């Protein structure tokens, strides 16, 4: 880890230990500065393709074993871009929708679209036709990339469609197939390329909407280049074999498994969908070294370690990266005890920050239990009192504000939301309650809007959820505010029990009451089969609040 800090303030005013500058109450990253290109007329696809590396295999389909090398990848990107431009008529500024499960085709489509100066937007394949229609009405795509099975969700929309493969469709207008585009020789004439600037929009990804309706996040080529550049300077082994366990329609899947790994020369094994035993079998088959998992999967692997290790040879696995929700010290230590050769590295980012925030990148850093890491390269941070607006210092809890070259441009066609979250000085108001300690490590406490107000006291749901996950009979848990006439709100827990468990409400309440202050006690418990979550692992509290309200 390096202690070099680049900022507009005099370095003598910055504490080298915490990264905090007293002069402007700003925390600066302790990582290496970002190597950003001086050329402002540069698209992110070109930036990635120019990165030198010795990688050979870019992507592997876990189910079929199909492989694509880096040379084949860039040939395919050029050919598909040529077809999209010449045959389909995609131009700079056009929006292209990707509606697909994880696939080798997704990196090719996205890199091709962005090389034209067109904009990639994605939709969750599990969404209903109505939900997809509303997103399309907002983003107005001119073309959709999808599969024959999912094309029915676009029936009647009138949009032109490129299919991943040939198959039966109804009510859609197919204008091309990926297999044909990838194998079609480039036209003899050189394509006249539109000039793409780094401030042009490259991606329009929709936020998860855990507390409200989804919003389209506009990310520029410069934002995405900054994300890729961060992986070029922060310590990550380019020889890692990543297993893509998260959906590629989400910011984490797209930015890390499409862009960062392609720039490093790393190999990505793509799971079409997540299933625990399919993931473990793929680790064995492809000797994967790195997984990205959400907290409940880590807990499941910890609880089922004996059976898992008896069935699967996980000796190749070295790193598990975790995001979505902070891991407690107990879960971290419990996992490492069961898998002593695997290190857990946490991280923190938002769709709006394009991968920037905080990360654990070394074993030494991972020993700071509960932390989500040091500030990312090129990132500045402030901790702001949400009530007074006062900017605070080390070890003070407040709303985290972030600033840097990867912070998104704002929300698409939503000026009100943009003004609320992005201020005129370029700060992104994350809505997360955090603090930064004496050594510059970032800790998340909870979502500002999700704090439960019990008789004037603030109760962080994440704290209670971390405790609940330590119970041997609990698979997963979520805590929500329940309206109460006397207290205002009180904590209610939704619990997913192990199949053989007969855990009761009283036992859950007693388990928590023995560990927390009286105002943090859980007052009500409901048992469910599973906790509703976004693809990135964030709890959909709004769904649980709606469920609880319907039963009052």
UniProtKB/TrEMBL annotation:
Keywords: ATP-binding, Ligase, Magnesium, Membrane, Nucleotide-binding, Transmembrane, Transmembrane helix. It comes from Brassica oleracea var. oleracea. It comes from the Eukaryota. This is Uncharacterized protein. Its cofactor is Mg(2+). The keyword ATP-binding applies. Residues 463-538 form the AMP-binding enzyme C-terminal domain. InterPro entries: AMP-bd_C (IPR025110), AMP-bd_C_sf (IPR045851), AMP-dep_synth/lig_dom (IPR000873), ANL_N_sf (IPR042099). Belongs to the ATP-dependent AMP-binding enzyme family. Gene3D superfamilies: 3.30.300.30, N-terminal domain of ligase-like. GO terms for molecular function: ATP binding; CoA-ligase activity. Residues 53-412 form the AMP-dependent synthetase/ligase domain. Pfam families: AMP-binding, AMP-binding_C. CDD domains: 4CL (cd05904). SUPFAM superfamilies: Acetyl-CoA synthetase-like (SSF56801). The keyword Cytoplasm does not apply.
């Amino acid at each position: 880890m390096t202690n070099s800090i680049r900022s507009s303030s005099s370095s003598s005013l910055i504490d080298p230990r915490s990264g905090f500058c007293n002069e402007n109450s700003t925390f600066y990253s302790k990582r290496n500065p970002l190597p950003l290109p001086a050329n402002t007329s540069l698209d992110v696809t070109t930036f990635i393709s120019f990165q030198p590396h010795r990688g050979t295999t870019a992507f592997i389909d876990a189910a079929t074993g199909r492989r694509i090398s880096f040379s084949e990848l860039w040939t395919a990107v050029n050919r598909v871009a040529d077809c999209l431009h010449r045959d389909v008529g995609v131009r700079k500024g056009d929006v292209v929708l990707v509606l697909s499960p994880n696939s080798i085709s997704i990196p090719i489509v996205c890199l091709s679209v962005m090389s034209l100066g067109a904009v990639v937007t994605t939709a969750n394949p599990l969404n209903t036709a109505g939900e997809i229609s509303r997103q399309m009405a907002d983003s107005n795509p001119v073309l959709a990339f999808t599969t024959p099975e999912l094309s029915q969700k676009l029936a009647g929309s009138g949009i032109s469609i490129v299919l991943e493969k040939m198959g039966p469709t109804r009510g859609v207008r197919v204008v091309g197939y990926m297999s044909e585009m990838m194998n079609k020789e480039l036209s003899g004439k050189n394509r006249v390329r539109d000039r793409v600037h780094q401030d042009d929009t490259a991606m329009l990804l929709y936020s998860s909407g855990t507390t409200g309706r989804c919003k389209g996040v506009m990310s520029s080529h410069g934002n995405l280049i900054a994300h890729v550049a961060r992986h070029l300077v922060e310590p990550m082994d380019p020889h890692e074999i990543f297993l893509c366990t998260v959906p590629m329609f989400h910011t984490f899947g797209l930015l890390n498994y499409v862009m960062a790994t392609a720039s490093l020369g790393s190999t990505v094994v793509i799971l079409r969908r997540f299933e625990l035993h399919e993931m473990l079998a793929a680790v064995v088959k492809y000797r994967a070294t790195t997984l990205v998992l959400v907290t409940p999967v880590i807990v499941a692997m910890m609880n089922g370690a004996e059976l898992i290790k008896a069935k699967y040879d996980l000796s190749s696995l070295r790193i598990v990266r975790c995001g979505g929700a902070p891991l407690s010290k107990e879960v971290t230590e419990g996992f490492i005890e069961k898998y002593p050769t695997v290190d857990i590295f946490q991280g923190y980012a938002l769709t709006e920050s394009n991968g920037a925030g905080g990360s654990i990148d070394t074993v030494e850093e991972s020993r700071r239990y509960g932390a989500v890491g040091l500030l990312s390269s090129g990132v500045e941070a402030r901790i702001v009192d949400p009530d007074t607006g006062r900017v605070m210092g080390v070890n003070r809890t407040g709303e985290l504000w972030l600033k840097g070259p990867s912070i998104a441009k704002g929300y698409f066609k939503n000026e009100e939301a943009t003004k609320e979250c992005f201020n005129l000085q370029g700060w992104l108001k994350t809505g997360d309650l955090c603090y930064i300690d004496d050594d510059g490590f970032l800790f998340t406490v909870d979502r500002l809007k999700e704090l439960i107000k019990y008789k004037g006291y603030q109760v962080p749901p994440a704290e209670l959820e971390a405790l609940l996950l330590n119970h041997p009979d609990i698979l997963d848990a979520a805590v929500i505010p329940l309206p109460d006439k006397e207290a205002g709100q009180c904590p209610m827990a939704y619990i997913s029990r192990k199949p053989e468990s007969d855990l009761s409400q009283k036992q859950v309440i007693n388990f928590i009451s023995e560990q927390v202050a009286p105002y943090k006690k859980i007052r009500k418990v409901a048992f469910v089969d599973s906790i509703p979550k976004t693809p990135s692992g964030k709890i959909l509290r709004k769904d649980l609040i709606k469920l609880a309200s319907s039963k009052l």
